[in-house]
Amino acid sequence: MELKITLLPGDGIGPEVIAQAVKCLQAVEETFNHQFTYTTALIGAAAIYKTGDPLPDSTIELCKNSDAVLFGAIGAPEFDNNPDAKIRPEDGLFRLRNELGVFANIRPVAVFPTLIKKSPLKEAVLRGTDFVIYRELTSGIYCGEKFLSPDGSYATDLSKYTESEISRITHLAFKAARKRRKKLTLIDKSNVLETSRLWRRVVKRIAESYPDVELECIYLHNAIMQMILNPSRFDVILAANLFGDIISDQASVIGGSIGLLPSASIGTDKAMFEPIHGSYPQAQGKDIANPIAAILSAAMLLQHYGLEEESRAVVSAVNKSFKKNIVTPDINPKSKYGTNNVGDFIASNIVDTDDSLNM
Ligand code: IPM
Ligand code: MN
Description:
alpha/beta, Isopropylmalate Dehydrogenase, 10-stranded mixed β-sheet, two-stranded antiparallel sheet, 41% helix, 2 domains, NAD, 13 helices, binds 3-isopropylmalic acid, metal-binding, binds manganese (II) ion, globular, NAD binding
C-alpha cells in the first residue's frame, strides 16, 4: 500500500516522539512491503517562531493533500505563562482539526498486563479495564465565541452544539460499541447545562436504532469517581469536547503513565493521529520522553487504513518492550533506556502479530 503521511512534530517532546513513530512505520514498510512517504510541516509554537502563524497555509495544504497526519504535541511555557498572548500555539491545532473536519477523537484506554503494578489503582480494581473514549473534537466550548471585556474584568466562552454535530459522533460511538461489549456511556452535565440536555435527547433518540447496545447516561462528576472506583464498568464513553479532554487525561493515568495513550481523530474524509499527552517542555531534548503514545498512534493509523496485521505487529513490539523492561524513566525510574533506545527496540521487533488495540 502507498500512503502519503504528513508529520507535524510540533513543540516540546513532539519531534522526539514522532521520530520514534516514524522509525516504526519504516520498519512496517520494510517488513510488510509498503511504500509510505513522509513530509514534515510546521505547527504550534515552532510555526509561530518561524512564520508568526501557528498554522501556516502551507501546512493546511499539505495535510489536505495527504492520506494521514501524524501529530506530535503542541504548547510552550512562554505562551502558557502569558495569558495576554494574542497568538497561541494551541490555536493551530484547533484550526487544523476544523480544517480537516476530524470531529471524532477516539482514545482507547487499555491496561497493559505487564504494567499493572505501575498504576496508582489496585490490581483488583484495574482488572478488566478496557474502554474507549469518543470525544467530540470540532465544536463545544472550545470553538464557541470568546469574549474579554476591554477593561479585562469580564470574560465569556460560548458553549454550543447542534443536533447534527452530536448525531454524527454518536453514530460512530454506537457502531464502535456494537463491535465491543455493547455498552455506551454518555458523560454529561445535563443537570446544569442546556447543551448537555441536547446531547441526552439526541443520544437517547439515536439509541433506538441500536437496540443491541445498552445506553447509560451519567453526570461528569459521577463518571470521574466511577473511573477510579470501577473503571472496568466502561466500554465506549461518549463526551463533548471539553469533558472528553478532561476524562481522557484522568483515564491515561490508570494505565500507569500518560505517555502511553494514543488517539485517532477522524471525520468523513481526513484522519489525524496523535498522542493524548502534551508537549512536556521540561523533558525536551533530554531523551526521556515516552515514545509509546506516538508509536501507538502510528498503530492506529495503520489500523485505520485496514493494515490490521501491521498494526498488531507494532502493538506486539510495544508489549515486548514492556516485558523486557526496555522502557523510559516514567515507567521505570531506574531505567537506563531513553526515548531513542525504546524507539529502536520497538522498530527492530516489528515482526510478530499477537496483540491488538481494541477500538
Ligand atoms: C488534547 C490537548 C489539546 C486539547 C490542547 C493541547 C489544546 O490537551 O489534544 O487533548 O485540549 O484538545
Ligand atoms: Mn488534553
